[in-house]
Amino acid sequence: DNLIFSPDSTGKAVWEVMGLFFIIYQSIIIPFRICFDSDAEGGFLIIETAIDVCFLLDILVQFNTGFYKKGILVYSRH
Prior knowledge:
It contains 2 helices and 2 strands; from the N terminus they run ααββ. The mean pLDDT is 95.
């Protein structure tokens, strides 16, 4: 069966907030790594790889989330 997420669900809200924190983290870390030519190592490598995977999964989540069109909740992928 097709799994479509509700845009109003608590799980979707938690996913969005988590993504916001990941974006803030990346906006600080990426310039630092570029300026100081520093590669991620150890735990930071694991964390940053997990964040990258979450960003890839977010694409799937966004394509499988319902949306409002003229005030009507649409769960169709079309």
